[in-house]
Amino acid sequence: LNVEDTIELTEANISSTTFGPGDTGHILIETGQLSMVGSEIVLKTFASGNAGNIRIRADESVELNTILETVNRSAIANEVAEGASGAGGEITIETSILKIFDGSALQLVSSGTGNVGDINITASESVDFVGGFLTGSGFLLSGILVFDSPDNRTANGDVTITTGQLRVLDGAQITTSPRGTGNGGNITIVARDSIDITGGVRFDDGRLGSSLSAGPQLVGSSGNGGNIILRTGQLRVHDGGAVQTFSFEPGDGGDIIVDATSVNVTNAKISAEAFGEGNAGNVDAIISGRILLD
Description:
By secondary structure, this protein is an all-beta fold. The chain has strands spanning 2-10, 13-18, 27-37, 40-45, 54-65, 75-80, 91-101, 105-110, 119-130, 132-135, 138-141, 143-147, 159-169, 173-177, 187-198, 200-203, 206-209, 211-214, 228-238, 242-247, 256-266, 269-274, 283-287, 291-293.
């Protein structure tokens, strides 16, 4: 699709799917603004064919929203179905402003044995992931989700974001989570001005905080967790937010590397943990200015 001004998708679907040895097509969107409300852009393989790549170039903005009344979220996804051996492709977004709200998400999912690709975001001004809520079947959280199946032996995809400001708010998540024997993907964020991870979503028994996390989703997952690398001017983690790597036995947890001018962590955490025989990762910080821990 090549539309100079605006593409608006409301309860719409753009997709390419393979059920055999042939690959899906690619999806390329070029526009000024892309707005999605309760809509999906999806590539998916159900067999040995590979899923292609999704590439979005929007000069001004990309925005994903959920229709709350019907819990109909928006998603840009590249997926490998259960039983499929084909590989998933990449998701690439180039824009000025990226906003994802109320449970909408970018996701790479392998429920088969094929590996998933990478997510690469370049937003010259800002990236916002905001909100989430509890449904009858679990949490619906805004953000980026990368995970695979317990049968998967390949590495998870990486997430790379380059922007001016990154905000992960009100329960939103950026997560790479292997569930099999493959290693977890890395999360790399280069934010010229600031990274903010704050707030959470409340439910009956507590509160789920906003987070950047890399580690296995299931007890018994044996792969190593991925690393989290943050390079920014100001890193602020507040009000239940978290930056965390972890592992279950026997895999090792990933490292956390922070390179910033200032760091402020208040009622929140930056942690590398291991919950089995594997080793926890390191936390390395290069801070040229002020550190505030409260």
